[in-house]
Write a structure and sequence with these properties.
mainly alpha; 5 helices; 80% helix
């Protein structure tokens, strides 16, 4: 895969996640994604948060994640969603429960899209 193809895959991934984030804002009470710009920046910040802080949290909470049969990952995803919202203007989350539902909806939509897109 060439550098151009990798760059295009990265851009498409950001845009796809931005669309999902925008839909989460429409489906979950307590989450607001004001416009496309907020969705794109939210997707970028969410990706960066998951790639850095999220990986560290997953490693540090591995025993709890193991004991809860992986369900604690939803808590970490909720925290990453709240972290992204804290840095992006136009992306607001009203509380942890909204973030939890948002992370569940985001994960389910990502799963379904992954199945449909191959």
């Amino acid at each position: 895969m060439s550098t151009d193809e990798k760059a295009m895959d990265f851009i498409l991934s950001i845009l796809f996640n931005a669309i999902l984030l925008f839909l989460v804002g429409r489906l979950v009470d307590g989450i607001e994604v004001r416009d496309g710009k907020a969705a794109v920046f939210g997707a970028i910040v969410l990706g960066l948060a998951n790639a850095s802080v999220g990986k560290l949290l997953l490693l540090l909470t591995l025993p709890i994640t193991f004991l809860t049969l992986g369900l604690f990952v939803l808590v970490i995803n909720s925290l990453m969603l709240m972290l992204a919202a804290a840095f992006v203007d136009g992306f607001e989350i009203e509380g942890f429960s909204a973030a939890m539902w948002g992370s569940i909806v985001f994960a389910v939509m990502n799963f379904i899209a992954g199945i449909m897109l191959g």
